[in-house]
Hints:
Elements: E1 7-12, E2 15-20, E3 31-34, H1 36-44, H2 51-61, H3 66-82
Antiparallel strand pairs: 1-2, 2-3
Amino acid sequence: MKLKKDIILGNIDGSNFAIATGKLQKSFNGIINNNPTAAYIFELLKTEQTEDSIVKAMLEKYDVDEETVRADVKEALETIEKLGILE
């Protein structure tokens, strides 16, 4: 899975966000405000990923146990999937 090509990630004054551009605006018209952890997941999703690859990357970046990371990644991916912005 990865983000659709029309999703643009950005940061303004320390605030991370994702917005839809192009044809994707017809199905998703809004801004997603991301905390640093969510912003990292979005960055990872710029390239093809699996849930396991995201969990592995998160474990390497953050000092947290795998059970917590796996639950957080699962929740984030479910939310992102509901928005319809994943390929």
